[in-house]
Amino acid sequence: MSIRDKEKVDQMPWAKERIAEAQAALDATGNLEDPAVIEALLNVEKKCRLSNDSIATKLVAATILQMCRAKRAWATHIAHCTLLAKRRSQSKAAIGGIVAEGLAVLEAEPAEMTDLADREALLKALCEITDGKMYCEGERAKLTRMLSALKEAAGAVGEAADILQGVNVETYGSLSKREKVDYILDQVRLMLAKGDRVRAYILSKKVQRKTLLEDDLQDLKVRFYKLMVEYHVLEDEPFELAQDFFAIFSTKCVLDDEAAWRDALSSTAIFLALSDHAPGVSDMMHRVLADAAAAPKLDALPTSKALLALFTTDEIIAYPMPDHQAAVEDHPCLKTAGDDVHLRWKKTLHTRVVQHNVRVVAKYYRQISVARLANLLGLSEDEAERHVSHMVSSNGLYCKIDRPAGIAQFHKPKPPDEVLQDWAGDISKMLNLVEMTCHLINKESMLHKDVLGL
Known about the structure:
Blueprint: H1 12-29, H2 35-50, H3 54-70, H4 74-85, H5 92-106, H6 116-130, H7 137-153, H8 157-165, H9 177-194, H10 197-204, H11 218-235, H12 238-249, H13 252-255, H14 258-274, H15 279-290, H16 294-298, H17 302-311, H18 325-329, H19 339-364, E1 367-369, H20 370-377, H21 381-393, E2 400-402, E3 407-409, H22 416-452
Antiparallel strand pairs: 1-3, 2-3
Helix pairs in contact: 1-2, 1-3, 2-3, 3-4, 3-5, 4-5, 4-6, 5-6, 6-7, 7-8, 8-9, 9-10, 9-11, 11-12, 12-14, 14-17, 15-17, 19-21, 20-21
């Protein structure tokens, strides 16, 4: 029969007497090594444990650690945390009490344990104690985070990220939804700081976007999308950036802060302009212009409103854009990742303007001379041909260039099968009309015959 199966024997009165005697011995000698102090209490703890009295066991264990704390004997404190937790058939209540005493030392204000080596040793000991114990999962999450913060403060960002990443906090039932999201955001932040963008993206997928729409998680929503901005900037994904900034703009706490919504909304417009043309991009541009919250605020951002209007209108955009070029290129959102990325965004803006202009020309012309096309785009003939070729290769446009004749043809000829189908369809429509006409003529003829009595 195991200890836990035995009938409980109440040892609390006896344990309190022994604790009082040990405390008196400590007050008299001031020495934790005195056999009447910790050694005597360890014997008391053993008897309480064997008697299956978890409450008394917890009290004795906590008393031992409190004595060590009072004397600032941190090495002894850490050693007895591990010793008491690993004793045979130690109760959950006692282990919970040991962890609670350790956390009390670490969270004390002002800090009692000032030596970083001692703090790290205690944190590692408590993490080892709580490992695999579901009833201590909340404490384990907190301890791991504290250990990670200690490593980060010491400059070991990679090690801090690895420590925190090892906690699958989304499976912890004892933590609230807010605590879980906050924890995951810290994991993502450290992975980005470490430079591991792949793992940062994987961790970000643990956060459900619909969860962030709750009113009490507004600050975490803004934090999350700012981290996604940091990730997508380095991944060169302007449309994703536009969605991130618009999600930030759509947050109530941001709408109440003029500086915040100005930055978010103007960044949304700029990154939509920088996005490669696609139905989703075009749809989002129109949605932003028509959005109940964004539309009135765009009036206060003339550059952003003009930029969206230019890219949603089938007209040639002059480059550089009059009145708006400098404001767009100097926007802070384009400078967050350094000069190289800023230069890349500027080149991308020019490319998107050229591509928009090519699509406009293709809409209004079946064919055009390459020289005239280059003139409309404000480029040399070679550059114009290069941009058109890139759009054709990426399936964004149909164009066939006759170099000897210098003609660009945007009208796609139909294959023979399609021509035949169209012809068959036209013939079928014509025969239906002839049949309907004959029917109506016969109907009128019969009516007139009846009227005349023929």
